[in-house]
Design a protein that fits this description.
eight-stranded mixed β-sheet; binds FE2/S2 (inorganic) cluster; Rieske Iron-sulfur Protein; binds fe (ii) ion
């Protein structure tokens, strides 16, 4: 705990003590990393093709990874295509309570069976028409007389493993992988407080990023860069007092919590009116009638109140008990290798980061907003993904609202980081002891998979 004694205050936990509605119990615990190696992290992992190829074998073909949401495929025959580097899966609902993931390649001559999602009652290859039933058995070989040497029964579509948690469908290419529930470690216990099963994808935007997929992810899991890269938020965002949690013996999960509605510890004497005005300037969610702060009230308290009103109205359910933190703060978890799900209702984000095909120096970053379903469980059709090209900005996707400006600022830096890592003569990146402890934790797990 020595390092957090030196962290500027007030701490996240101290802010929580002044809140009107306290946060869930999992958020009242602090677990700074213990005993991490402080060595630099080698940089070839961000550009080397050899590293990338080994990552395919050791990470992408071994780890559980997010494929889609269950609400993307509600009916039997509904499917999505999940692609990672050269692998392609058809993630398909094969029965009301069963989802399977078939390798998306014809067992005749290899053609992709599907190039996009949709709904089908069988899987028919567009080249010569070999056809599989939804249960994966081969049903039709046109001109069967010409294949006396083929045993139909041995040509079921190969499958990846499928697991479901929090309304997310996960896949794993490794037949010997641990069960998803074990892989998720403490994540499900934490998310009992922020049930993501009652959400649906309300917005989904992807963009080709000018950097390795890990660099893109790392820019979104620490707040050390905020005062320099996003100076506009300092009147209402707690950057240097952000809490970072790494739990003993937990390899795949970490967390950070940044408070909002309070100024950065580096900003002294900011009146509550300014905190409110600047937050409302950047976050349209807080727009509307004036927010007055009376004697004895705080900007954070008033902003949380407004957020609860807005959230209640949009969900159609009374959310007046929602904690100040879930109404305002960044409650961000990371699941190895590439998923970043958030708790709370203020910023209901999930990020996913993947290599862009076979190129280690570009990536696909996705931002999903998971809004709450109506009290009866109904919800609008999940949002179709908007794909932004390399030259488009996040702000070209209006559905992202205030998240776009921040993501654009990070994207500009990421291009410089990718190029700078090719120019540098220093063999490793140096990480902060506390504020970048999640990145170090992440690379310790990555190194273990890569060495395996
Ligand atoms: S390649 Fe699929 S039927 Fe020929
Ligand atoms: Fe950022």
């Amino acid at each position: 705990m020595d390092i957090i004694a030196r962290r500027p205050g007030p701490s996240v936990q101290e802010v929580f003590e002044g809140d009107t509605n306290p946060p869930p119990a999992v958020m009242r615990v602090e677990s700074p990393a213990q005993g991490q190696s402080l060595a630099d992290v080698s940089i070839e992992r961000y550009f080397s093709k050899a590293w990338h190829d080994r990552e395919v074998e050791k990470v992408w073909r071994k780890c559980w990874q997010l494929a889609c949401r269950v609400e993307h495929i509600p009916n039997v025959g509904d499917h999505m295509i999940y692609e990672i580097v050269h692998d392609s899966l058809i993630v398909i609902r094969t029965a009301p309570d069963e989802i399977r993931a078939y390798v998306n390649a014809c067992l005749h001559r290899g053609t992709l069976l599907r190039t996009e999602g949709g709904c089908v009652h069988q899987l028919r290859c567009p080249f010569h028409g070999w056809t599989w039933k939804l249960d994966g058995t081969l049903s039709i070989i046109p001109g069967q007389w010409d294949f006396p040497h083929v045993d139909k029964a041995s040509l079921n579509l190969p499958e990846a493993k499928v697991g479901i948690w929090g309304g997310f469908v996960f896949v794993n290419f490794d037949p010997d992988c641990p069960p998803l529930a074990d892989y998720l470690e403490n994540l499900p216990a934490h998310f009992e407080a922020f049930n993501l099963e009652d959400r649906y994808v309300a917005a989904h935007v992807a963009k080709i990023m000018p950097c390795n997929w890990k660099l893109a992810m790392e820019a979104f899991v620490e707040a050390y860069h905020v005062s320099v890269a996003h100076p506009q938020v300092m009147g209402y965002y707690g950057d240097t007092n952000t809490q970072y949690d790494i739990w003993p013996d937990v390899r795949h999960v970490s967390r950070m919590i940044s408070v909002q509605g309070v100024p950065s510890p580096s900003m002294k004497g900011i009146p509550p009116e300014r905190t409110i005005a600047e937050m409302r300037r950047d976050v349209p969610f807080f727009a509307g009638r004036p927010i007055e702060v009376a004697q004895g009230e705080t900007a954070r308290g008033k902003l949380a109140e407004r957020a609860r009103e807005k959230i209640s109205r949009s969900i159609g359910r009374d959310m007046s008990d929602l904690s100040d933190s879930e109404s305002l703060d960044l409650i961000e978890y990371m699941l190895f290798p590439n998923m970043v799900p958030w708790g709370g209702q203020a910023l209901p984000i999930t990020y996913r980061f993947r290599p862009n095909g076979d190129d280690p120096e570009s990536s696909i970053m996705e931002i999903m907003f998971l809004f709450s379903k109506a009290p009866d469980g109904s919800h609008p059709t999940p949002a179709k993904m908007t794909m932004l090209g390399p030259d488009q900005n996040w702000s070209d996707a209006p559905e992202l609202g205030s998240a776009a400006m921040v993501a654009d600022q990070d994207t500009d830096n990421l291009m410089r980081i990718q190029k700078g890592l090719r120019a540098t003569r220093k063999p490793g990146v140096t990480l902060a002891r506390y504020q970048e402890s999640r990145i170090r934790h992440y690379h310790a797990t990555l190194d273990a998979y890569m060495a395996d």
